[in-house]
Structures are given as structure tokens and as C-alpha cells.
Write a structure and sequence with these properties.
The protein has 6 helices and no strands. 18% of the residues are buried. Helix 1 crosses helix 2 and helix 2 packs antiparallel against helix 3. The protein is elongated. It starts with a helix and ends with a helix. With 103 residues, the protein is mainly α.
Length: 103
């Protein structure tokens, strides 16, 4: 189980999936929670680098210009299994501008 979980985390993270999605998939495969927690315990900056790569690839590095686009990007990244904090770290740069434009 340990070796499988390690390989699975590596494989899925390189495919662009975040910690929540990977954990759910491992649980569905019957891996114990403590093994999942151990294998997903990587530094936060690793997950931030992964989410940034996924965002760049899917959205071509274009920050959202309105709430509809922002919601679409958030839904996509959360579906991929990234946390709200990780999503916010990618979209944080333009959030203040979007609020000023649409308010």
C-alpha cells in the first residue's frame, strides 16, 4: 500500500491533480487514511507550483476579467482537487481589480 500510494500521488500530481482529489481517489481504492496523509505531506510550495502549471496550461496565463471567468477558473481548479487557498494564490493578483471593475 505504501509503495502504491507513493507512486499514485506522484503520477496524479504530474497529471495536474491536487491533494484533495488524489486523497479521494486513494480512499476509493481502500488505502488507509494515515498512509494517504503521509504520502500527501509535501511542502506547500510544491502544490503551489503544480497548481500554477495547471492554471497556465489550461487558461494560458490569462487572469479572469470578470466574475463569470473567475468562477469558471475556480471551479476548474477545485475540481482538479486543489484547496481554496491554493486557488486564491494563483488568482490573487487580479482579485482586487475584478472587485473594483464589477462593483
Amino acid at each position: 500500500d505504501l509503495r502504491f500510494a507513493e507512486n499514485f500521488v506522484y503520477w496524479r500530481s504530474k497529471k495536474g491533480y491536487g491533494p484533495h482529489r488524489i486523497a479521494a481517489e486513494l480512499q476509493a481504492r481502500g488505502i488507509a487514511d494515515d498512509v494517504i496523509a503521509e504520502k500527501l505531506s509535501v511542502p506547500a510550495d510544491v502544490w503551489l507550483a503544480e497548481i500554477h502549471k495547471v492554471w497556465q496550461k489550461h487558461f494560458k496565463g490569462k487572469q479572469p476579467t470578470n466574475f463569470k471567468e473567475r468562477a469558471k477558473q475556480i471551479r476548474f481548479l477545485q475540481y482538479r482537487g486543489f484547496t481554496r487557498e491554493q486557488v486564491d494564490s494563483v488568482l490573487l493578483n487580479k482579485d482586487a481589480e475584478i472587485e473594483r471593475i464589477d462593483v
